[in-house]
Design a protein that fits this description.
alpha+beta; Protein-Tyrosine Phosphatase, Chain A; 2 domains; nine-stranded mixed beta sheet; five-stranded antiparallel beta sheet; 24% strand; globular
């Protein structure tokens, strides 16, 4: 299924399945068995049974794969999610009228098959043939262009998805195989990420003269299409900007906020973001000073409370864990005298240049943050290092990858990092950080393989 039930306030498809429990459609009983919601698509499983006057027939299990990131008369932002979805389903697809999006999906699928069999593609010829069978398959030039974009993505990078059982062997190949120009396989894989173009034309807001001083590093500025927007202060222009980007998670869009370490003059903006977006979890991956340079202004009180503009932050708990410090704070918006709880996770032992000595600490802090999220309603998780890219991107990549490993036993480090870089520049900055993603996943699998169905 390639359409949402409603798009632009118009019904595109009647909901023909029960949200929970079971419904009767004439003589057919449909029962919801399971639903898995992911960031780009949802997988539902139904048990259907014909119950006619001559008695019930044997029940059948039906799986529905519902792609949810395809706008009507548009195309997905990136082919990554579509190619992942393509692996899940090969038949029984239907959007609204069964033309534009259905045709696009069929062409991409068929051309990938042709690429494998004939080492060529013929998009124009194939589209011409299927439009003779059903008119208006491929409705817009955007859909036609998206076909080439998806095929180019597949041709350049192939299928980089791994089963956890093959991860160890893949890591050995990455570290032992020499690519052209005498690069290790790992270095070559990371080099391909440089193909992700930094879209400077989409950084206009962060580059406005009034906002430049709010950026810690001028090379890392949020894109306009997914920047975090603050409310405008009355009578003050340009007060809706903060150097922060919404980032998709494994199951949920805008699950993370990637941001820089606050500057002394942007601390109130930081707490305003926490308040306005109702965030309950903050992850800090940098020390306040590293190599004698300030990397993050201390935006929380060491004891008692501190006031930043309209916001007061009170420290109510401070717990030292093995690799991170856990602080409980109460954030109060003074004009309305309203408060909310915030939990602050401060990871120690990650140098600005380099990676943590081992991966267990990262696994532990990710698990602690996810437990907090389950209790606090899954509002966006704020993650920052100094510039909000290298360590921040690595943490978000690992959170996303490990969640998929637990759910599916699959991982795709390359496409996960590539997707992050399309949402914020320079996410996962170094080949060491990229390698760390692989190694932490391997550590996770080694630790928990006795308790989960990985191997």
């Amino acid at each position: 299924m390639l359409t949402n039930l409603k798009e632009r306030k118009e019904e595109k498809c009647y909901q023909y399945w029960p949200e929970k429990g079971c419904w009767m459609y004439g003589n057919v009983r449909v029962a919801m068995e399971d639903a898995t919601v992911l960031v780009d698509y949802t997988i539902r499983k139904f048990c259907i049974q014909y119950q006619g006057s001559d008695g019930p027939r044997a029940p059948r299990l039906v799986t529905q794969l519902h792609f949810t990131s395809w706008p009507d008369f548009g195309v997905p932002f990136t082919p990554i999610g579509m190619l992942k979805f393509l692996k899940k389903v090969k038949r029984s697809i239907h959007p609204t009228a069964g033309v534009g999006r259905t045709g696009t999906f069929i062409v991409i699928d068929s051309m990938i098959d042709m690429m494998h069999m004939d080492q060529r593609v013929d998009v124009f010829g194939f589209v011409s043939r299927i439009r003779e069978q059903r008119c208006q398959l491929i409705q817009t030039d955007m859909q036609y262009s998206f076909i080439y974009q998806a095929l180019l993505e597949y041709y350049l990078y192939g299928d980089t998805e791994l089963d956890v059982c093959s991860l160890e062997g893949h890591l050995q190949r990455l570290h032992n195989t020499r690519a052209p120009h005498d690069r290790l396989g790992l270095e070559e894989e990371f080099r391909k990420l440089t193909n992700v173009r930094i879209m400077k034309e989409n950084m206009r807001t962060g580059n406005l003269p009034a906002n430049m001083k709010k950026n810690r590093v001028l090379q890392i500025i949020p894109y306009d299409f997914n920047r975090v927007i603050l409310s405008v202060k009355r009578g003050q222009e340009f007060t809706d900007y903060i150097n922060a980007s919404f980032i998709d998670g494994y199951r949920q869009k805008d699950y993370f906020i990637a941001t820089q370490g606050p500057l002394s003059h942007t601390v109130e903006d930081f707490w305003r973001m926490v308040w306005e977006w109702r965030c309950h979890s903050i992850v800090t991956l940098t020390e306040l000073k590293e190599r004698e340079q300030e990397k993050c202004f201390q935006y929380w009180p060491s004891e008692g409370s501190a006031t930043f503009g309209d916001y007061t932050v009170e420290l109510t708990g401070d717990t030292l864990c093995e690799t991170f410090t856990l602080k409980d704070m109460v954030l109060t918006y003074r004009p309305e005298k309203q408060s909310q709880h915030v939990r602050h996770f401060h990871f120690h032992g990650w140098p600005e240049i380099g990676i943590p000595a081992e991966g267990r600490g990262m696994i532990d802090i990710i698990a602690a943050v996810q437990r907090q999220q389950q209790q606090s309603g899954n509002r966006p998780i704020i993650v920052h290092c100094s510039a909000g890219a290298g360590r921040t991107g690595t943490f978000i990549a690992l959170s996303t990858i490990l969640e998929r490993v637990k759910a599916e036993g699959l991982l795709d480090v390359f496409q996960t990092v590539k997707s992050l870089r399309m949402q914020r520049p320079h996410m996962v900055q170094t080949v060491e950080q990229y390698d760390f993603c692989y190694r932490v996943v391997q550590d996770f699998v080694d630790i928990y393989s006795d308790y989960a169905n990985f191997k």
